[in-house]
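Lab channel / #folding
Pinned by the channel admin:
"Please post every new chain as: sequence first, then the structure tokens as a reply. Keep commentary short and put observations after the output so the thread stays searchable."

First post following the new format, from NK:
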Amino acid sequence: MEVKRLKSIALTFAAVATTATSALAADVTMNVGFGAPEASIYGRFGAHFERFAEEFSDGEIDVKLRCCNQIATEDEAFKAMQLGTVDGFFITANNVSPHWPLMDVTVLPYIFQNQEHLARVLDGEVGQYMKDKLQADTSVHLLAFGPSLYRDFYNSVRPVNTMADMDGLKIRVPKNEVMIATFEAFGANPVPLAWSETPTALQTGTVDGGDNGTSFIRDMKFYEFEPHLVILEHFVAFAPLFASDHFMKRLSDEHRDDIMRAATAAGAALAEEVATETQEIRDWLATEGGMAMTVPDKTDFVEAAKGVQDEFATNRSDDFRELLAMIRAAAE
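Reply from TO:
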């Protein structure tokens, strides 16, 4: 009887030990923040990442998404990742620039000439160079660049088939020196306006047009008074996923690989969705929205943009100019 009781106790301890080991193995939590609502592009990117991370790790990694600046703002988050107090965060690329000025290269007009060029840069040696250098300079890991989002151009005056058609158009631009210089180089007259002033300025004719992400043109109903849609794709934006070095070092080699794979898979999945949605919205604007859509020859636009790139590179570091040259070379 005593022997049976001892065996029972031994089996119980074994079961407890096994359960404890399993619980510890599954107890890898990654809190990932972003500033926008859950339904935003950031939230969707996060949902894909969460799904893939848990799938690849067989449930051993638990990703918890924190929207709406619950953890921190974008500016605070990068600093917090450097300190190791935030695990991960989605940050708009241009908001990384104050912490790592080389990211400004991606904000320049036509720095990526087309989707093929973009893919060669981000998925190739240049993209890996950027990831490695950012980590070396700041300690923060860039896990995935995420999908590219283009700004489409629209106006109320005329169709744009060549850069000459931009001549004299009064174009609303954000209060951003790169964007102002870009439209000046295109031959237009840029008018810096806050976003809050833009819809009224467009409706009243104070400005002739502007540029926005494709979905904004539909959501803001600009098609009701801006009859010309122009697919320029002059600016591209990213919302990369970053992680702190402190978090990454806490992971086993296997879990670190799971996180990296999940970030890449999530970016690819969302990029496919965004590409499909962008074209669907453009088609809607050109049919139900009643806009006349043109796709200009971009040759002159790209050449003008190179002048803007050179102008801004002149006052930047040697590393900035080197990275610009590497991205340009990838287009050839």
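NK: Confidence is low (pLDDT under 50) at residues 1-26.
TO: also worth noting, The chain has two domains: 24-147+237-278, 150-236+285-329.
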